[in-house]
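Final report, Chapter 2: Outcomes

The project's central promise was a pipeline that accepts a single protein chain and returns its three-dimensional structure in a standardized token representation, suitable for archiving and comparison. That pipeline is now operational. To close this chapter, we reproduce one record exactly as it appears in the project archive, with the input sequence first and the structure output second.
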Amino acid sequence: MSLRVITEHQLPALRRDAVDRESLEAARSILGEVEAGGESALRKCAERFGDLAPGAPMVLGKSELESAFLSLGTEERGVLERTAARIRSFAEAQKNALGPAELELPGGRAYQDVSPVERAACYAPGGRYPLPSSVLMTAVTARVAGVPMVWVASPKPASITLAAAHVAGADALLAVGGAQAIGALAYGAGIVPAFDVIVGPGNRFVTAAKQLVSGRVKIDMLAGPSELVVLADDSADPRVIAADLLAQAEHDPDARPYLITTSRSLIDRVNRELGAQLATLPTRSIAEVALGKGFAVHASSVQAAIAATNQLAPEHLELMVQNAAQVVPELRHFGGLFVGAGSAEVLGDYGAGPNHVLPTGGTARFSGGLSVFHFLRIRTVLELEAKDVDPRLVDDAVRLARLEGLEAHARSALWRKKAP
């Protein structure tokens, strides 16, 4: 199995709608059920789709999460705790980069404050593999932001998922997935409160449901199939590149592994390595399908390789070139950048610090990854003494109001000139 080879002129347009019509309609129907029927409808959906056995608890509290954590071995507990600490440290650094601001004005001041939302819900897939890393990435970040109530939602959660929720400081876990979970988190459903923010990756029905409830609640992004671009030159090790591409490919049959380079020799060596490493890979059946959807770009120049990378705007971008410091400023669109052979995307996925919930499908052109900022509100305040308000401000407000035909606005502003 090898990556097909194309030139930069054959690069396909990868921008795509996050959700197909069929998934949207299916999600819309399920959301309607949950909104209308509340907790009983949520349970019916969860049992119908195999999330829950009849009569099984839908919500697990702090004691159940702690019990799952204590049931793990010392090594597993340590991995979760150390990973959470790294995620927490980076999120705290992010939060510290944003603070209050104030501007003195005639008659008073204008200022901003930074405040967390009250309730955040963190979705973690529970399909092919348990994803405790996603629990940590989302719930730890929400806690650092200062959110008072944090829940996790995950269908058929494994013990490691419950333990991760405990380590992250979650208040409870909803053992339901799919569009039905998103509906419950958005609308509320009996014991499940309505949340202010819903974040985290999921399947196409989760993504469709998030799109449909967006506006009622805040969401992080509409995630599609995971992507990795490796931008490399002849100095890169083909064995490492192949290993990283396969790590991406085993995620999902729809994952997208890409290599961009000016070296045809490197492409050939990477393809040989892919074949050799696939031979012993337990997830070969999945990885081979994903490799068939990927490609290698044989670029005509370094600038063409960089342009192709920017055009793809990938979720993950690994840079394995000499003089990387000169190339980094030219890379404009990516969810997460991994500079140098030591900066494996896998290390980012598993908690080096930066968040692994990242934009896909070319949306890195206008958005970034999950951060504490998704759980924070920037609120502005204007505080002026009427007798000291700048008369030019009042006059300009009056003029603008009348230009827009809004006379009540103009008169409201004029009252500030009449203040004693």
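Archive annotation: The first helix runs from residue 21 to 48.
This record, like all others produced under the grant, will remain available to the consortium after the project formally closes.
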